[in-house]
Amino acid sequence: MKKDIHPEYFTIKAVCACGNEVEIGTLQPEMRVEICAACHPFFTGKQKVLDTAGRIDKFNKRYAKHFENKKS
Length: 72
Prior knowledge:
3-stranded mixed beta sheet
C-alpha cells in the first residue's frame, strides 16, 4: 500500500441508545446509533402487527365517492 493516501482506520465501540456496545472497525473515531440488533423489534420478536385490512377499508370508505365519479 502507498503511504499517506489511506484514511485513518479506527477500532471503536459503537454505542446504541439502549446501551448495547458493539466493537467495529470504521473510519470515524466515534459512533452512536439509535437502534441495534439487541433492541430492534424484528430481532427481539416484539413486532407490532399492523391492521392492514382495517387501513384498506378505511381508505376505500374515504375515497368511495371519488372513485364513483371517475367510473361514471
